[in-house]
Design a protein that fits this description.
The protein is mostly helical. The chain is 71% helix and 1% strand. The protein has 21 helices and two strands. The chain has a two-stranded antiparallel sheet with strand order 1-2. Helix 2 packs parallel to helix 13 and helix 8 packs parallel to helix 13. It is globular and about 70 Å long. 53% of the residues are buried.
Length: 535
């Protein structure tokens, strides 16, 4: 049995290497991620309870309990459409470059280089913004714990929160420099903790909440309290920020494709399962919160704790119970950040492999000891810390990091999905395939991303002053503008030398070698079979 399992494992490894070679790349990573661990990295980045805690501050003003419940349900369905369309592409071409690789291979020759460049930079800034927003949420949760522990007498300043944030990011960079096998094993731990935390809150919160904070079904499921200043319909749409930010960055599984076993099957199903399970569990969490948050939304939003979910827990569990539960929330949020740094560094490694990032010759290096791209790990961490400096420009500026992580990634997601049907290509589906439903699902996904990408450029309230503007367009637009300047820069710009993904293997030679290896394995297997029969 052990011998058969080893043969099966070897056959899968050879198939993964052969598929990667057909895409033009040599095997540089260790394929240490199992199917569960590949799912784990997407699910741990989604995070659920700590993610909902980070963005509850956005959904409460935009409709209160009913926006939390029904906004989550509506958005989750559309997010699943996006995930299924991406899963098809991931199954056909599982490579760390993912989005921009697909864009280049599926787009028409006239536009493929430019579109791949745009998608690569949108994916890079979106991934780094995801790191920044997750770790900023973790820093806020840590300071909220300090406030709860002090009896709500302590309230962190922006400078103190930024200091905690920088420490969290740097610690994640250290973790992500470790070997691939250790990072893979951690994903299983993250998944188990995540699910246990969700189930604990779904069960314990209703049981522990005092009667004065329990809400009726008509209030929890039907009350719409809009304090944003926008018309109610638009406010409800703005409440989608919570589920969209929570169930995002599921392309992380794509970016570890070259480290995943049986990638053409494991990666697409990891995306779909992560979104589906997160949608169901997240909806249950929001229902529990809506029934147990009380009716005084203003006190939840403006408590000294500075964290709406922490205040809800405080009202239900008291100081000691909240600190015990909140410590696990912070731990899971911290795990989310480490997984996101891992995925973002792999994306940057793939983009620098093709020479598109500044200083690519330094970024595209594999550490000889850990077999991990240490340079791109630190590139991601430093870039994220620089984004965190927006905190000193005001709350609206730091909030832009949350919306930017969605809008930038939606640009990167939508272009390759659309290119599959609009470009001049010979797309060959992989094991995961929607068949005749591929086109309608893709159309809904792209339309949804375009619509929400525009919505999230609006400020949180109408008639904002300078401090309350939505700075997403400034930061993201600035990065994308500079990337286009570099692309079209005279003589040295990418338009003169960028030709998309750069092969790192000779496909014909690699194919010949794989065929020879496969034939040898087949002969060996046949010999073993004959020996067994004679015996």
């Amino acid at each position: 049995m052990d011998q058969e399992n080893q043969r099966r494992k070897t056959a899968i490894e050879l198939a993964d290497e052969e598929l990667l070679a057909n895409l033009g790349y040599k095997q540089e990573f260790q394929r240490a991620f199992t199917g569960l661990e590949t799912f784990g990295i997407a699910f741990s980045i989604i995070g659920l309870l700590p993610s909902i805690a980070s963005v509850l501050v956005y959904s409460i003003p935009d409709g209160g309990p009913s926006a939390m419940v029904w906004g989550w349900l509506v958005a989750s369905i559309f997010i699943l459409f996006v995930g299924m369309s991406m899963a098809e592409l991931a199954s056909a071409a599982p490579t760390s470059g993912g989005l921009y690789f697909w864009t280049h291979s599926l787009s028409s020759p006239r536009w493929r280089n430019l579109l791949a460049w745009v998608v690569g930079y949108a994916n890079t800034i979106g991934s780094v913004a995801s790191v920044a927003s997750i770790d900023w949420g973790c820093a806020v949760q840590i300071t909220a714990a300090a406030s709860i522990g002090s009896g709500q007498t302590f309230s962190a300043t922006n400078a103190q929160t930024f200091g905690v944030y920088a420490a969290v990011v740097l610690s994640h960079a250290v973790i992500c420099c470790f070997g691939t096998r250790l990072l893979a094993r951690l994903q299983t731990v993250y998944v188990v903790l995540n699910i246990l935390l969700c189930l604990a809150v779904i069960i314990a919160l209703p049981a522990a909440t005092p009667k004065e904070f329990k809400n009726s079904a008509s209030y929890a499921l039907g009350n719409f309290t809009n304090t944003s200043g926008w018309p109610s319909g638009f406010a409800f749409i703005l409440s989608f920020l919570a589920p969209l930010w929570t169930i995002c960055s599921f392309d992380s599984s794509v970016h570890i494709s070259e480290e995943a076993s049986n990638a053409a099957t494991a990666v697409p199903w990891a995306i779909v399962y992560a979104i589906g399970i997160a949608g169901v569990l997240g909806w249950a969490i929001n229902i529990a919160l809506a029934f147990c948050m009380g009716t005084d939304l203003d006190s939840i939003m403006n408590s000294p704790v500075g964290q709406p979910m922490a205040e809800i827990f405080f009202n239900s569990f008291g100081q000691k119970g909240t600190l015990a539960l909140w410590s696990i929330v912070v731990l899971v949020q911290y795990m989310m950040g480490s997984s996101m740094v891992l995925a973002a560094s792999r994306q940057s490694f793939a983009f620098s492999r093709d020479g598109a990032l500044p200083f690519s010759k330094y970024l595209y290096r594999m550490n000889s000891y850990t077999k991990t791209p240490v340079n791109t790990v630190w590139f991601t961490a430093v870039f994220a810390i620089l984004l965190g400096l927006l905190a000193f420009a005001g709350d609206s500026a730091i909030n832009a990091i949350f919306t930017m992580s969605i809008t930038a990634l939606y640009v990167a997601y939508s272009i390759p999905i659309a290119a599959r049907f609009l470009g001049d290509n010979d797309f060959a589906p992989g094991p995961f395939n929607l068949g005749r439903w591929s086109a309608p699902v893709a159309f809904i996904a792209v339309f949804w991303m375009m619509f929400m990408g525009i919505v999230f450029l609006f400020p949180t309230a109408p008639d904002p002053d300078v401090a309350d503007m939505n700075y997403t367009i400034v930061v993201m637009g600035g990065v994308m503008f500079l990337s286009l300047v570099w692309y079209y820069f005279p003589k040295y710009g990418g338009v003169h030398w960028f030709k998309g993904p750069v092969p790192t293997v000779d496909k014909q030679a690699e194919a010949s070698e794989r065929t020879s290896t496969s034939d040898s394995m087949a002969k060996e297997k046949a010999a073993v079979t004959v020996t067994q029969q004679e015996a």
